[in-house]
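>> received
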Amino acid sequence: MDIDTVNALPYEDFVDLLGNVVERCPLIPAAVWSGRPFSNLTALEAAISGFIDALPEAGKEGVLRCHPDLAGRDLQSGSLTRESREEQAGAGMHALDSAEASRMALLNEDYKQRLGFPFVICARMSDKANILRELSARCRNERAEERARGIEEVKKICHLRLQALVLH
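>> returned
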């Protein structure tokens, strides 16, 4: 679909199409819909990023909390969004051996307990070894640093999801 077609979509269709470019946050495309027409994909992405950047810190943490744990309960139960399932599978999260799965579960829990939101990384730009390294290293960071880092990762995920939906 090209940007002109996206711009012409009624509100409900726009939100349906873009509702998961930020994981489980259809409010974000709903909020930027009124900014149409977007001159190109970059302008649409900038509107989404601008909306996220304007959120208070608690709102940014809310965006992060919409993300599932990597290789977590949602993957095991099959309740991931289609996009997350594909992204996690591409990074090898569905094929962890028992030691990797145990380590991932412990690190995910430690991260969430310490920081109050799940670890977020752009799985499509990583693999399971790198994800485990990053999760281990980032568990030691301060909350504000991790909130900012997580939001940057959300924007990478959004960028790739938008590119998959809108021709550029």
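>> The mean pLDDT is 97.
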